[in-house]
């Protein structure tokens, strides 16, 4: 299986892009929790020991739970041991964290200043470990890979997922605060999501996935995940499972998001 590498960037726009995600709120439990082993390396960042211990506890609980959420009960874990490596600065420019196969690399410098709970970032990266996808025949599947990881984060861990965005008549985000950093960054950048906004990935894509799950097919995320895991993903699957093209579904989602935004007072 090919490696998935996901980055948490610290640059102004990109760092925020990895901090949120969306999907239906709920709990997941693995029927029989398999033994999970973690390996911690803080040799280059000994001051990250507390973060390391918390990461090990988090992974030992959530690695099998995420696997059940994405694949169903009985699906084997892709790796027997998850290694966590903390370093002050990562080798990939601007990265705060990234998953590479069964290894999660974390910048000990960044987690001290990040605006969110670092555990939520770890859930996003751990989801990539569970995904373990082979190369996709579609060159445009990156948005979906990241959307699914944020979907897991926000549906199951943070439990703050919503089925719509707050969009104005031009498809631009309105009314977000710094407590929602990715949305806030997109709003202040004046980004329009009117056409193919799902390509913004992360929280935007996971909100869309939650909307699809709520409105079209309650199993859509698992179905798309399985297709990705088999190297069989195609945008045509949206029409197969949800009755409309990907772009058609996005337009419907955008219109509902516009309609659901509260009217300004005064």
Automatic annotation (TrEMBL):
Signal peptide (UniProt feature, chain positions): 1-30
InterPro entries: Uncharacterised_BSP
Keyword Signal: yes
Sorted UniProt keywords: Signal
PANTHER family, alphabetized: PLANT BASIC SECRETORY PROTEIN (BSP) FAMILY PROTEIN, PTHR33321
Name of the protein: Peptidase
Naturally occurring in which organism (per UniProt): Undibacterium terreum
């Amino acid at each position: 299986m090919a490696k998935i590498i996901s980055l948490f960037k610290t640059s102004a726009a990109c760092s925020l892009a990895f901090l949120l995600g969306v999907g239906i709120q709920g709990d997941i439990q693995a029927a029989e929790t398999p033994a999970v082993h973690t390996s911690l390396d803080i040799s280059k960042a000994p001051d990250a020991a507390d973060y390391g211990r918390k990461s090990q506890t988090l992974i030992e609980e959530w690695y099998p739970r995420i696997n059940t959420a994405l694949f169903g009960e009985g699906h084997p874990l892709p790796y027997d041991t998850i290694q966590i490596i903390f370093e002050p600065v990562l080798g990939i420019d601007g990265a705060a964290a990234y998953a590479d196969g069964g290894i999660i690399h974390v910048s000990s410098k960044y987690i001290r200043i990040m605006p969110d709970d670092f555990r939520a970032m770890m859930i996003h990266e751990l989801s990539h470990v569970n995904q373990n996808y082979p190369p996709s025949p579609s060159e445009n599947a990156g948005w979906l890979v990241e959307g699914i990881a944020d979907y897991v984060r926000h549906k199951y861990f943070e439990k703050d997922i919503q089925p719509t965005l707050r969009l104005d008549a031009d498809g631009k985000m309105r009314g977000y605060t710094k407590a929602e950093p990715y949305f806030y960054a997109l709003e202040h950048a004046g980004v329009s999501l009117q056409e193919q906004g799902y390509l913004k990935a992360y929280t935007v894509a996971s909100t869309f996935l939650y909307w699809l799950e709520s409105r079209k097919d309650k199993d859509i995320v698992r179905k798309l995940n399985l297709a990705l895991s088999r190297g069989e993903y195609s945008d045509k699957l949206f029409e197969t499972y949800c009755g409309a093209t990907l772009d058609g579904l996005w337009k419907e989602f955008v219109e509902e998001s516009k309609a659901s935004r509260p009217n300004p007072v005064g």
